[in-house]
Amino acid sequence: MLExxxxxxxxxxxxxxxxxxxxxxxxxxxxxxxVRAFHNRILRERDDLTRQVARLFRTARAGAGASGGGGxxxx
Length: 75
Known about the structure:
Mean pLDDT: 83
Number of helices: 1
Strand content: 25-35%
Distance between the termini: 22 Å
Helix content: 25-40%
Radius of gyration: 13 Å
Strand order of the largest sheet: 1-2-3-4
Oligomer: single chain
Low-confidence stretches: none
């Protein structure tokens, strides 16, 4: 791991984007259940991944608000 960037969506820490040794590949490390589907997802562009994670997080949050549930952070 060369560097990482925190991914925070609407004030909630949901994971980290990690730059791999090849200086191009970025891997997402999910820390929030609502975006676990993206855990270890690899993409070339960080912004593409961040947009997808944000969409999934907001969709899950909207669904949880309607049902009264909620995502819990991973431990």
